[in-house]
Amino acid sequence: MRERKAQVWGLLAPTLFLMFAIGVVPVIYILYLSAFKYNVFSRVGMVYTGFNNFRKLVFDADFLKSLRLGLTFVVLCCGIELPLGLLIANLLTLEFRGKGLFRTIMTLPLAMAPITIGSMWVLLMNPDIGPIPFYLRKLGIEYNIGVNPTQAFFTTVLVDIWHWTPFVVLTFMAGLSALPKQPYEAALVDGANRWQVFRYITIPLLKPVILTTLFIRIMDTFRVFDEVWMLTSGGPGTATRYVSIHLVRLVLQSMEYGYSSAMSLFLLYLTIVMCWLLMTFISSSQEAT
Amino acid sequence: MQRKTLRLVLVYLVCILIAAFTLFPIYWMFVVSARTKLEVFSGPKLIQTSFYAFNYYRPFFRDIYGRYLVNSLIIASGNTLLVVSLAILATYAFSRFRVPGSSNLFFWTITNRMAPPAVFIVPFFLIFTRLGLRDTRIGMILLYCIFNLPFAIWLLKGMIDSIPKELDEAAYIDGCSLLGVLWNVILPLAKPGIMTTAILTWIFAWNEYLFAAILTSVNARTITTGLAEFVTVIGTNWGEMAAVSVVCLIPAVVFIGIAQRHIIAGLTFGAVKD
């Protein structure tokens, strides 16, 4: 038995070692760096400042703005994608020819590299060569995501919708096809109309899938980086400077490693808390039903 | 009867609309990749009849993008190999034996996957610089384990859990060692699951951008990072950028053909089965 136990740890050892080295050590390092003022260009090197970085973080208007912008982006994207996905999936419950092909098309954006999606939309939106600004100009609308902050913001939302609505539709389709048939037959006998069936049977039964999808979408939109970076790099001005982009720009431009670490730590903390809250919420609502 | 026909027409209409919305950007990318500079700038015509193959030839054979492509292939494949082999070993331990802390495995997987990658760039930049791993392929192969390894363990756990325990016990009685059981019993039975895991891992590693952009410069630069380099102040060669994007897209399309049914299960951590 003892021999077996040693073997189990032998199986786990490489994974634990690797995950410790790349998963735990960086977090400890962030924790350590966040207590210092550490700028690559300064001559004094690292200076211990205690909680100063965090004090600075709380009053950092740019950071708070990026946080607010990021959360607006999350709310807007999820608020559009989930209802839209639910609507489409609900419409497509019946069997028809070409459903398989439709699903294959919907899977395409999911496997594409986000950076490719960014460059693809750059090709569409560029004021010199893109068809969208070209045709909008014919309608009398000046469209330039490099200049107009509102347009840039809603363009990133549109790109996110393009990228992830298929995911929502496919999860909901999978969820719907796994639902029991019996409640629907009972409702049919009772003479419920289409809306009532949707509201009182589909939604409650599908609730676990809806919540899981919402959870994944919230976390993914919160950390969005690649597409937006390729499309606008956070500009014009600070219009699309979501948290990840703000952090990366800060690291690349100011080289303030201490302060950036404090910000990273805060974001990591925020992510873990959000994950934990949402997962508790999901499991408690599953017990309730 | 008539209502049913009406609904079917509606369904087809919606499907065609969504498919068009999804496919048009991809179509446009192909169109631009087939155009000369002159054609690109002479107004966005929606139909393309000629094909300018030089856009595909020059970046890969006359510029550095061929090397980037090879780097991407090596890094993604190396990472997949490492992740899958480590994950099989670890998952077997998690699945068959009581490991302290294994009840937190799911939360660990989720937070590793959901944490913004931007959070880790400062420590990785400093650590990799110190260890001399910056701008090396081996560094990137190790690094991508941070999000792929927990994910692979989580995906494989469901599959190895479903293999009856009696099978490996019988093999032990027949005198198999632990590794023998893994090799002769678990591996053949979990093969479809391992394939799916490998494909998803490969796609994630291939698609990764931020770490590669920060931690590589010339030697280990990947194709996604190269793609982001196209937009420069002196102007962008749009045709070539589109061509590189298309090449970057190809593996995704190929793997969709193989693993389409498992992508949703993979992306929702097995919460939704297709």
From TrEMBL, chain A:
PROSITE patterns found in the cross-reference section: ABC_TM1
Residues covered by the ABC transmembrane type-1 domain: 63-278
Keywords: Cell membrane, Membrane, Transmembrane, Transmembrane helix, Transport
Main location: membrane
GO biological process: one example: transmembrane transport
Transmembrane segments: 12-32, 69-92, 104-124, 161-179, 200-219, 257-279
GO CC terms: plasma membrane
Recorded topology in the membrane: Multi-pass membrane protein
SUPFAM superfamilies, per the entry: MetI-like
Localization, UniProt: Cell membrane
InterPro entries: MetI-like, MetI-like_sf
This protein's record includes keyword Transmembrane: yes
Family (UniProt): Belongs to the binding-protein-dependent transport system permease family.
Stated name of the protein: Sugar ABC transporter permease
TrEMBL record, chain B:
Name the record gives this protein: Maltose/maltodextrin transport system permease protein MalG
Family per similarity comment: Belongs to the binding-protein-dependent transport system permease family. MalFG subfamily.
Membrane spanning stretches: 9-28, 69-94, 114-133, 140-160, 197-218, 238-259
Example GO BP: transmembrane transport
The organism of origin for this protein: Candidatus Caldatribacterium saccharofermentans
Signal peptide (from-to): none
Location(s) in or outside the cell: Cell membrane
Keywords associated with the record: Cell membrane, Membrane, Sugar transport, Transmembrane, Transmembrane helix, Transport
